[in-house]
Specification:
alpha+beta; 2 domains; five-stranded antiparallel beta sheet; 6 helices; 35% helix; elongated
Length: 230
């Protein structure tokens, strides 16, 4: 992963980076080493722990921060290869035709290009699925209690009658009784005693090819705009 911070002034960016380095060296003197590394026409800086820092902290040989300044902004990464690739892409983009997609917000803007759902799946699928599964199972205790008290009635209907709301299993599906385990279960996730693989968790994401959204704060509120390509 690499972080790109856009800048409208190369001079101000240089002053910011210089001040940042001076602050680090003044705050923790002799704890960091700054090494400039060339890469073709490009150059970047590696910040790593000094020998003194290794003695004080321990084994941190593999911990480094890489950054580079370009005409457009500051690029930072914890992985050297990722930073180099980002610099190469920025170098190619410098001579390329400017993007035609406008930013829809002056205060906050997000753009998801084609293929974004695959990146989401790779990065967040496991944690996303675990959270949705946890929420689906969180309703089982009360549904089992309704089943114990009213064995001849649908626990979901009982809960709806008492509280005026219908318990819905996140990710779609519904709740049903498992005779083998004597517990309620979520149709897409099962129950803790017999979990199910949620294979359709990202189908909704695949409905959208790209998303362009933005927010602009105004004096009396805000204005938002979202453009979705299916």
């Amino acid at each position: 992963m690499a972080l790109f911070i856009e800048s409208t002034s190369a001079l101000k960016l240089a002053a910011f980076v210089t001040a940042g380095r001076a602050f680090v060296e003044q705050s923790v003197p002799n704890m960091t080493l700054w090494e400039t590394k060339p890469h073709g026409d490009l150059a970047y800086v590696r910040i790593r722990a000094s020998e003194q820092a290794k003695e004080d902290v321990g084994d941190i040989d593999n911990l480094s921060v890489f950054y580079a300044t370009t005409g457009k902004g500051l690029v930072i990464s914890l992985n050297e290869n990722t930073l180099v690739k980002a610099l190469e892409r920025l170098s190619v983009a410098k001579d390329a035709k400017p993007a035609t997609r406008p930013w829809h917000g002056e205060s906050l803007a997000l753009q998801f290009q084609p293929g974004w759902s695959r990146a989401w799946e790779t990065t967040f699928n496991e944690s996303f699925t675990a959270e949705v599964q946890r929420r689906a199972w969180s309703n089982l205790s009360i549904l089992n209690e309704w089943k114990r008290r009213y064995p001849d009635q649908d626990p979901v209907k009982v809960h709806e009658k008492i509280f005026g709301c219908t318990l819905v299993s996140p990710g779609g599906g519904s709740y049903a009784w498992s005779e083998d385990f004597q517990t309620m279960q979520s149709t897409p996730f099962g129950h803790p005693g017999e979990p199910k693989d949620f294979t359709q968790k990202t189908e909704l994401l695949k409905l959208f090819q790209s998303i362009n959204a933005g927010v602009t704060f105004e004096k009396q509120g805000l204005r938002g705009k979202v453009e979705i390509k299916r």
